[in-house]
Amino acid sequence: MSISSEHKPLGKQVTGSLHTLSPIVELNVGGEMYTTTLSTLKKHPGSKLAEMFTGQPKLRTDSEGRFFIDRPGTYFKYILEYLRSNQVPTQCIQDVYKEALFYDIEPLIKQLEDSPQIFGELVARKQFLARVPNYSENIELMIRIARAEAVASRQSSVIVCVVRTEDDAARCQDALNSLDMDKKSVVKFGPWKAVPSISDLLDCIQMDVEAKGYKISFQPHVAEKGFRFKSHDFFYKFLFTWW
């Protein structure tokens, strides 16, 4: 059965060689339209973007015949700006960095990694968090506990124990044994061997939980009178607000 002209497919695989195409290329990147040249797209031969437009076409087209790339179109303008003029973007650095990684544009990746935002995240913060045992797992555990306690509540709380040294870890365990709470519901972070302080780690926890879309705050956890230790030396209450 033949397809009538009223029911044309939304996209099609391009056949033939790109060498036969016009040097002017129209692109549909995630719904954003761009016009550029083949030479611009192929400026860095080893990149994934250049490979998309080298030899046998590897992209589909939209209903208007534009090459379609299923990526966020908003940030592609910064990629094009770099390819055209070697101008490193100063806006949306984190998002442009993700796109540079996807398109594998090595010179842009390296220059973005030298920017304060990416350098601070990759070299400083993430290197620190890599030295905090089970950091990512503990973030997920906090979220699971908070969600489990959210039934018919506006807020749910998670008690976190933060220890920087092995000695503090031992003292924290003694303190934990004295606390009137379910020990399994306390999430422990540390110890670690790095310069950042407990307050730095608490900021990281809040930052990474908020990055997952949650509204969260924290405060020192004040234990009952007669407690053997100053509980705020180790224990903090993280509040998840749901509505």
From TrEMBL:
InterPro entries: BTB/POZ_dom (IPR000210), KCTD7/14_C (IPR057890), SKP1/BTB/POZ_sf (IPR011333), T1-type_BTB (IPR003131). CDD domains: BTB_POZ_KCTD14 (cd18371). Residues 23-120 form the BTB domain. Pfam families: BTB_2, KCTD_C. SUPFAM superfamilies: POZ domain. One of its GO terms (biological process) is protein homooligomerization. This is KCD14 protein. It comes from Pomatostomus ruficeps (Chestnut-crowned babbler).
